Each structure stands twice: as C-alpha cells, then as structure tokens.
Amino acid sequence: MTRAFRPRFARIVCMVLAVALILATAALFAVSPSFGIYEFHAVDYIGTIIFVALLLGLLWIQYQVRIEVYDWGIRVKNLVRSHELEWPELIAVEFGDGPWVRIDTTSGETISAMAIQSSDGEFARKEAVRLATLIDYHSTPKKMISASSRRRSTRTGNRVLSNEHGYFSAL
Predict the structure, then answer these.
(1) What one-character-per-residue DSSP string does the chain give?
(2) Pair 157, 85 in one domain
(3) Cβ contact 113:102 at 8 Å
(4) Sorted alphabetically, which keywords does the UniProt record give (predicted)?
(5) Are residues 19 and 56 in the same domain?
(6) Where in the sequence is the domain holding 30, given as residue range(s)?
(7) Cα(16)–Cα(14) distance, rounded to whole angstroms?
(8) Are residues 19 and 45 in the same domain?
(9) Which helix (H) or strand (E) holds 82?
(10) Would you say residue 31 lies in a domain?
(11) Which of 3, 6, 15, 94 could form a disulfide with 102 if both were Cys (CB 3.0 to 4.6 A apart)?
C-alpha cells in the first residue's frame, strides 16, 4: 500500500483543539468547587464529561479523514461517508476553487475527497498531482503499453500537468 493521503492543517487543528479541550476541562474541574455562586454537582461533572467526549469524538472523526491506496483501487474516507473505488472507475482529479479535491468516476459521479484540502496550499497541490499520477498509472491498460513507450517514460519520467480548470493528468 502506498502512503495514504491525509490533510495536514486539519489534523494539526484537531490535535490542538483536543489538547485545549482536555486542558480546559481539567481546569474547569479544578476550580469548579469554588466556581462563584454556582456549585458543581455530580450531574454537572457527568454532563461535562459526556459533552467533552462528544466533541473529542467529532475531532477524532475529522482526524481520520484520508484516502487509502490499495492494489485494487482507493478508499476515500470522509467525515460521514466512505467510498471504495476500483482503478478502472477513476477518470480524473479536480482541484479547482473548492475546499478539497474532487474525483471524477466513469459512472458520472464526482466524489469529494476531504483528504486533500486547499487549506494545505502547495502540499495539497502536490498531493493532488500524486493522486492523479496514481490514477493515470493504474488505469492505463498494462498490455497496451508498448516497449518503446515504456522506455520513453523511464527515460524522461512522467510529467504531470494541470490545465486552467485544475484538472490533473499525467503525460
């Protein structure tokens, strides 16, 4: 399996928020016995713990967003839904003005992949190019590649370009 695609900035934000939430909850519990005119009771502690656990769960779900690459295809894990797509189903990667990359499929469906986010800047663009290269490599029928084109691609290497619409394709 190739290295998974994961957002950088969103994962850092999730980690920082989780630590801040835990520290704030610990500080609240430390000062709660003398918390002004309101006195914390057992139900308040339990409610706070449940609320913090729910928030930490949401942060964990965001932290787990990724695209996993396998021999058979890719698994796109977003916040709510996951998609398993085989290589022949994949057509192109679009990374235009939107917040994350979109993957076009042969069925006409466009799947948003939150693993490559525009907030990551140049890193995200490179990851979109890497995904487009993988799609191009795996969707090319192996038996149709001639020996001369194999020699040419090994000699010059694959160049990956994007057009003005943000579509990536390997040449």
Answers:
(1) -PPPB--SHHHHHHHHHHHHHHHHHHHHHHHGGG-TT----HHHHHHHHHHHHHHHHHHHHHHT-EEEE-SSEEEEE-SS-EEEEEGGGEEEEE-SSSSEEEEEETTS-EEEEEEEEGGGTHHHHHHHHHHHHHHHHHHS-GGG--HHHHHHHHHH---EEE-TT-EEEE-
(2) yes
(3) yes
(4) Membrane, Transmembrane, Transmembrane helix
(5) yes
(6) 9-63
(7) 6
(8) yes
(9) strand 82-86
(10) yes
(11) 94
Q: Which amino acid, 147?
A: A
Tell me the C-alpha distance between 137 and 124, whole Å. 20
59-115, pLDDT tens digit by residue? 999 999 999 999 999 999 999 999 999 999 998 898 878 899 999 999 999 999 999
- On whether the pTM is more than 0.90, the answer is no
CA angle (72, 168, 112) in 5-degree steps:
65
> Could you give phi then psi for residue 170, rounded to 5 degrees?
-95, 140
Does residue 1 fall inside a structural domain? no
Number of structural domains (the chain) is 2
Point out which residues pair with 169 in neighbouring strands.
Answer: 161
Residue among 147, 106, 148, 103 nearest 5 (CA) = 103
Angle between helices 9-31 and 42-63 (to 10 degrees): 170
Closest residue by Cα to residue 5 from 62, 74, 84: 74
Tokens of 108: 């006409």
Q: Are 88 and 94 in contact (CB under 8 A)?
A: no
- 2 found inside a domain: no
